[in-house]
Amino acid sequence: MIAKLKGRLDSTGIDHAVIDVGGVGYLVGASSRTLAALGPVGEAVTIHTEMLVAEDSIRLVGFARAEERDWYRLLTHVQGVGSRVALAILSALEPAELHRAVATGDKAMVARANGVGPKLAQRIVNELKDKIGAAPSGGPIGLAGAVALPAGSMSADALSALQNLGFKPTEASSAVAAAEEELGKAASLDALVRLALRKAAK
């Protein structure tokens, strides 16, 4: 699984960027918000990624921040929300705005995104409300009951790995925090994920 790319911004399009990593160009789909955050072509960039594997293709979707990637994962688990719609929502709303809209049941704000009608907006609010915490009053967003993990850190990557395997954000974050405490900050990602999996499965 490709969780992050670090290289040079080769080019950008309406809905994608090409990241040059050691001479290999990775085509990465992205929201307009992420594309705007990448900076000028030719500059060094780091982008968090989600790898989408289908029978006939492998695609990468990229995010300027790990929390945007977390919201993408939440959104695409809602029936009727595919990758394109999730990116449209993340183009229209900051993660904090989206969190507030879901927490307060503001379907009209969610429906501001292209391709999102009132019914789909209502479904997004209904399905995600129990998976997030209260509306943020400022500062970093955390999912309900989750231990806050620094974006882009080893622990954040381990958390992403567990969520990809189907663990709830609260279960995954608690398991990763416990594993990191036991192994120490110098632990490799592989060791951290393995121990977190054992703890989450208990």
From TrEMBL:
Coiled-coil parts of chain: none
Region (Domain I) location: 1-64
Gene3D superfamilies: 5' to 3' exonuclease, C-terminal subdomain, DNA helicase RuvA subunit, C-terminal domain, Nucleic acid-binding proteins
Domain named Helix-hairpin-helix DNA-binding motif class: residues: 73-92, 108-127
Region named Domain III: 154-202
Description of how the protein assembles with itself and partners: Homotetramer. Forms an RuvA(8)-RuvB(12)-Holliday junction (HJ) complex. HJ DNA is sandwiched between 2 RuvA tetramers; dsDNA enters through RuvA and exits via RuvB. An RuvB hexamer assembles on each DNA strand where it exits the tetramer. Each RuvB hexamer is contacted by two RuvA subunits (via domain III) on 2 adjacent RuvB subunits; this complex drives branch migration. In the full resolvosome a probable DNA-RuvA(4)-RuvB(12)-RuvC(2) complex forms which resolves the HJ.
Domains: entry comment: Has three domains with a flexible linker between the domains II and III and assumes an 'L' shape. Domain III is highly mobile and contacts RuvB.
Cross-referenced HAMAP family: DNA_HJ_migration_RuvA (MF_00031)
Name of this chain's protein: Holliday junction branch migration complex subunit RuvA
Organism: Sphingobium naphthae
Gene this protein is translated from: ruvA
